[in-house]
Each structure stands twice: as structure tokens, then as C-alpha cells.
Amino acid sequence: MPRTEFGPINGLNFAFAWQSEAIEAYLLSDVGKKRRNNEDSCIMCIPADPVLAQERGCLFAVADGMGGASAGEYASRLALNILVETYFKGPLKPVPEALREAVEKANERIFEEAEINPLFSGMGTTVSGIVLLGGWMYVVQVGDSRVYLWRERAGIHQVTRDHSLVAEQVRSGIISEEEARNHSLKNLITRAVGIKDKVKVDLFAVRLKEDDMLLLCSDGLCNTVSDAFIADAVQLEDIKSAAHRLIEKALDGGGADNITAVIVRVLSVAGKSALQEGAEEVSIMPKGFIRKLFGRFA
Q: Which one of 203, 237, 264, 273 is separated from 58 by 20 to 30 angstroms, measured CA to CA?
């Protein structure tokens, strides 16, 4: 198994830093100001074996649990542990397929435990995960935690799509993004791991560039902190300072929920490979590119 760092393990706060020749990462989770327990979880898995690294890549993920008592905390932990174990130990498959099957396995296990144990009845969790491999970021998504990418000249982009009632209304043009931010039902999600016997998983892929900044976060951050502030923060030279700045901003906004931020900076992109099948490719365009393109035909 790869080196794995997971937290929080005490139901409160967690911080961890990592750097290699290719990436640097910082994981930070805060219980917030209103909750007694931290139901968020985050994880990092870095293979030490060069063969495993070449086949599977590096994995980061965030999960935001839900349920009574300790059920949400248990669900988020269980989901990420099963995600890692299934992805790295299973038979070699295209990354998107392996990620989908890993989340489906987590869903099956959480649903079964919720059915058997009354203490865990109704528990579930979001899962937002990334694998960095061969010059690509592969993304797996269920729920309303998020994955962002910031790139020089292109700015901030939300790679994932929220599985929430309010987000669906925004995509349908029923309400604006500003109305969504203050909507009373903004925390009502339409998809989660473990709440049904089957789960639908979103899969995305982004070709990486050197100096790309990646952010995985729970909704305790993105429901409080604007995309503009996120973009400013992740540009800081020190990613530890960037993560703490984001958490502090969410706390200043009330800290009503648990808050988790995982920041990854791409230091170099080596061993580029073709896109593996099974994921929707997301293109990150420079600002003004579409306007310039259409301007040619005006």
C-alpha cells in the first residue's frame, strides 16, 4: 500500500504537509465554530513503489459525512478508507473505471451498515477525489464537496458539478448563483454515498500544466468563501498559508459547518500519457478566449 495520511482522527482538527519533486500538498480540516464533531475527512495516498506510482498515480480526497450522532463522521472515514483500499489493491483498470468502482464499493458498504445498525441509520457522505497520473487529473464526484483548479491566465474553475437541489436550479436557469449562495435549501443534496443501494458517480479529467493549483474542499468552505477569494488565496507562494487563509475566512463567515481544504500544487508534469477512457474531459481556457474566438467571426 502507498503512504497514506488521513484525518482528522479525533473528531476535531487536522493538518498535514507533503512535498515531492512533482507536487506539494497541504491538508487542513477544522471543526468550525458550531459543531462538536468534525464529520469531514480527507486523505492523501502517495505510492512509494515506482511501479505502483506509474500505474495508479497519487490520490487525494475529501468527504463530508452526514447522519445523527457519530454516523456522519463514521461514513466519511469509511468511504475514504474503502476508496483507497479498493483503488490501489484492485485489478489494474483505466483510472476512471477504477475510481467509479471504488466509490460504488464504498456506497455498498455504507448502505449495508446503515441498514444493519440503527445507530448509523440514514448516514451518508459526499466524496470528491482526484488521481494525478500521466499529466492528467482524474476526478470522481458525488455530492456537493468540490474540486477547483486555478491556472495562470485562466483563473479559477470549478471542475466538479454540485449534486444539490439549488445547484440544479442554477444550471436550469431558475435562480442565479448569487441567489443560490443565500438560499435556505443550499445544503440539500440530491446525491450522496451510502444513502441508497446504488449511486451515480461523476467522472472528469483535466490535462495538467506546471504550476496548476488544485483545491478539494467541503461545502463548509465553498458555501461561505467566494470563488474570487479562493482564487486570490491559492496564488500565495506558501500553500500552507493559502489553506489557513481559506479556513480563517470560512470561520470569519460564521464557521457554522466543518471546514476542509486540500491544496495541491503541480510542480512538474512528467511522463505525459493519453487520456484514459471513461471520464468527461474538462478544458481549461484562458480568460477571454471564447470572446476572442467569436470576435473573429463577428
A: 237
**CA–CA dist 92, 95 (Å, integer):** 8
Dihedral angle of Cα 240, 146, 33, 28, to the nearest 10 degrees:
-30
Are 216 and 60 in contact by the 8 Å Cβ rule? The answer is yes
Is pLDDT at 128 greater than 50 in this prediction?
yes
Total number of domains in the chain: 1
Which residue, 83, 77, 130, is CA-closest to 106?
A: 83
Q: Which residues pair with 124 in a beta bridge?
A: 66
Distance separating alpha carbons of residues 175 and 169, to the nearest angstrom: 6
DSSP secondary structure, 192-230, as one string? -BTSSSS---EEEEEE--TT-EEEEE-HHHHTTS-HHHH
Order of strands across the sheet that contains 259-266: 14-19, 23-30, 259-266, 213-217, 146-151, 155-158
pTM of the model: 0.92
d(CA 13, CA 9): 8
Nearest to 215 by CA among 162, 169, 151: 151
Q: What is the CATH number of the domain that holds 141?
A: 3.60.40.10
Task: Identify any residues that bridge with 29 across adjacent strands, giving them in sequence order.
Answer: 14, 260
pLDDT at position 246: 98
